[in-house]
Amino acid sequence: MNGWWKNAVGYQIYPRSFRDANHDGIGDLQGIIEKLPYLQSLGIDFIWLNPVYASPNVDNGYDISDYQDIHPDFGTMADFAELLEKAHAAGIKIIMDLVVNHTSDQHPWFLEAKKGKDNPYRDYYLWADATENKMPNAWQSFFGGSTWTYDENSGQAYFHVFAPEQPDLNWKNPQVREEICRMIRWWLDLGIDGFRLDAISHIQKEPWDFKISDNPWAPFMNVAGIEVYMQELKEIFDAYPIMTVGEASGVSSKKAVHWTKEDGYLNMIFELEHNVREGQPGAERLNLLGFKKVLSRWQKDLGSNGWNALYVENHDNPRIASILGDESPKSAKAIATMYMLLKGTPFIYQGQEIGMTNFAFESMEQVDAQDSHNLYRLLLDSGASPEEALRNVTHWTRDHSRTPLQWDGGMFGGFSELLPWMAVNSNTAQVNIFDQEKDEQSVLNHYKELIQLRKEQPFFADSAFELILKNHPQVFAYLRKTDTKQVLVLTNISRKPCRIDLPTRVANKNWRMLSTNAEQATVEKRIWMQPYDAWVFEAIG
Ligand code: TEU
Ligand code: CA
Fold it and tell me: Using a 6 Å cutoff on CB, does residue 357 contact ligand 1?
């Protein structure tokens, strides 16, 4: 079916932390198979799987050493085939992570390339003349430090926008693109249902002498020339009934229309703008006004021509219940209502559906993410005390989202019988799937209700979006509209009660409540909302 993803709800699985079926402390493919009935009961339509390929795990699977094999921690290709078949039987599609901006430095291509300037694989990567003390330019990588690593053997350096163990592929080389296309077809021919394209806006780079003015990432953010590569990818994707979602930071909401329109490169992209961290550690929260501004601009700019991917959590960010919420179930439900009814395809990150919270890291030993360790070292070097550095790093580390999924209140949260690779949050006795399945008022059941609402009413995919109460600092409120129907979403995303004054044209209509996370309420011109109240109304008459 063409465009099936417009009415679909996605669920992101971080396999290392989802479910450990063979009890070695690491989540695996059999664990996902075991929990398919859970995913089915949740009502989601597709899974996006973070990388499960062969990898030395410098960046937890985002450094791939063999694109066509499964990491032994997760299982085998046979396990993957079983997962695909059983997921499809359960009515669940599978989207794989496609990591083609870079490979691992242990990929056979790079091992060859490193052998010398005349190796046939040399041009699969990006090299430039350098000395030990002088890199080709001063560009900085996302994970801290230079984008260049010196190679003594050849007197050159190779380029990487992430870790040194993640050398960037040379997309200018047609042979590289051919290899990638072949690999993509191989997966699609296996019957998977699409891709999430990792860091895809970085595949094209400016010339090495490009001068950086303000944005340090400008030389590799959606750089001109990328259109050619994206068009080639699109032509492969077009031959399959799949969905594609690109992680495309640096593609503005204006430009995103071109990427996601009917004949755009991809079906949708993840924007990264709304994740921006406001303020320093201590000033814990995202500013709701800024958050609303970004999200509503994307709703408006993509309008009815482009398409949004909706998310509030992923494996790279802290838990939203600890950022926009106050960690209460009510706040987790309010956030769900607020974003799940926007226009686009909603993604739910594992654990979000039960309101999992940030982890109270007590030492750097509990932290796994490489970028967090780099930042820690940089902070110490710049004179911070170990306590300050730890506080700063753990304020926003991506590891908050990587603690094992909390299945029950037992030992290790029901994730494994062995000490897991990453600590289990101590609140697993209070926040877990087992208890929430039985509790009608749980966050989990609120998610189920919203998923059903979207599925029963294609209206949520088709209708227009209109922000109201734009300057209200606590409330995220909007209308969804067609000529014949209107839905009103009112959410107080704050710890304080507040008053709202609705526009007369909204207040004058008759409304029926569709969903609430608290008491029943009615629409009037002036309404008081309690902290984290979240209401959905449908216009009648
Ligand atoms: O993240 C990439 C990522 O966040 C950057 O592309 C982003 O554009 C940049 O930080 C600017 O804000 C993806 C994965 O989600 C992440 O887990 C990996 O570590 C990374 O790619 C490398 O593959
Ligand atoms: Ca395991």
Answer: no
Task: Show Cβ contacts of residue 257 under 8 Å, excluding neighbours closer than 6 positions.
Answer: 264, 301, 302, 303, 305, 306
pLDDT digits (tens, 9 = 90+) for 495-507: 999 999 999 999 9
CATH architecture under which domain 108-159 falls: Alpha-Beta Complex (3.90)
pTM greater than 0.70: yes
Ligand 1 and 142: CB distance under 6 A: yes
Assigned token pair, 331: 């706040």
162 within ligand 1 shell (Cβ under 6 A): yes
Q: In angstroms, how far is CA 207 from the centroid of its own chain?
A: 30
Whose alpha carbon is nearest atom 16 of ligand 1?
A: 316
For 97, residues 6+ apart whose C-beta sits below 8 A from its C-beta are 48, 49, 50, 51, 61, 62, 195, 196, 198
Nearest residue (by CA) to ligand 1, atom 12, is 249
Q: Which residues surround ligand 2, an ion (CB under 5 A)?
A: 20, 22, 24, 26, 28
Residue type (1 letter), 73: D
Is 66 an annotated catalytic residue?
A: no
Tens of pLDDT, residues 281-321: 434 457 888 889 999 999 999 998 999 999 999 999 999 99
Q: Could you tell me the distance, in angstroms and rounded to a whole number, from the CA of residue 199 to the centre of ligand 1?
A: 6
Closest residue by CA, ligand 1 atom 10:
142
The CATH number of 463-540, from 2.40.160.90, 3.40.50.300, 3.40.1120.10, 2.60.40.1180, is: 2.60.40.1180
